[in-house]
From TrEMBL:
SUPFAM superfamilies: FAD/NAD(P)-binding domain. Its EC number is 1.1.99.2. Gene3D superfamilies: D-Amino Acid Oxidase, subunit A, domain 2, FAD/NAD(P)-binding domain. GO terms for molecular function: (S)-2-hydroxyglutarate dehydrogenase activity. Residues 10-393 form the FAD dependent oxidoreductase domain. Belongs to the L2HGDH family. Keywords: FAD, Flavoprotein, Oxidoreductase. PANTHER family: L-2-HYDROXYGLUTARATE DEHYDROGENASE, MITOCHONDRIAL (PTHR43104). This is L-2-hydroxyglutarate dehydrogenase, mitochondrial. It comes from the Eukaryota. It holds the Pfam family DAO.
Amino acid sequence: MESVPKERVDCVVIGAGVVGLAVARELSVKHKREVLVVDSGPTFGTGTSSRNSEVIHAGIYYPSNSLKALFCVRGRELLYSYCNEHEIPHKQIGKLIVATGSSEVPKLNALITQGIENGVDGLRLMEGSEAMKLEPELQCVKALLSPASGIVDTHSLMLSLVGEAESHGTTFSYNTSVIGGHGEGNHIQLHISESSSLKNWDASTPLHPELILIPRLVVNSAGLSAPTLARRFCSLNGAIPTSSYARGCYFTLSNTKIPPFHHLIYPIPEDGGLGVHVTLDLNGQVKFGPDVEWIDDIDYISSFLNMFDYSVCKDRARQFYPEIRKYYPNLKDGSLEPGYAGIRPKLTGPKQAPADFVVQGEDIHGIAGLVNLFGIESPGLTSSMAIAEYVAAKLIRQ
């Protein structure tokens, strides 16, 4: 390590997904800090941030006073305000969560109770007949209307965050991997390599950094690889959660000039996700998904370099049709085309209760100026600015 060049920096944000970009913006714009964002990919937003439903969630589903509930409600307000101020394409189209059988009605009642407790305004239960007047292609026995839900162009959002951060002095270093770190006193030093140098790594020889960064503040916002990376930080106290990866595929509706729905349509939540739901993009394209496929045996390099299988097998459509037809019975055979896939960075596995976001600071791991963000799955996009606000305040207090 003595021969490795070293460089002092103020703040390092690891990961240029929407949360990392929001943190970089918050630190540079609001707190006037010099920020360096490093990402193993060739540009920003190549992972989970560009492979989701692009939905602005209201904050209904999450346990009272959980970080997911608090950040989602606060983040939604911040996100709508930011989109309006910066002319980011978005639309508050509303959502219907539907019960397609009488056995699901109690779950719908529980959801409205939870949403109200979380501070979500405007929620209303409606009979199936009223919901089906609103959406004639829908079939349900009861529905929960969430008018605060919406959609956003995530690429435009991220592009705006990048531009604003850069205009306030933030530097972006792509194709750059943080491969580990070590403690020096009460602070962490980061081990940096070009991403290309990792592709031929045999996973058995030690990884040697090409550069060591000595930062005052570090935010590990590496998404899918955040826990894996944290384990490679020497001298960390406290438990680092185990990663669970849930792959989800989306299919698009073809041969339809007029969308069958004008609202987001969601079934009752399922194990590992919110069910195969209907989302619309800002061009009117209808998407169905995501489903849940648990994957494991992810190696270090695949995790670091986002080398996941994002292909969509057209045969998976066979599983989509019966799920969708529970609420959209007129879905025609052959009308689903493969869209795209994403992977949720989860902290719990199959048949386990969903985990909350984990924001791990010095009080847990003992390293000053370091915050680890674990399990930032849905509603991570909606929560991004609230997470940034919280993380920045936590770091600046230190």
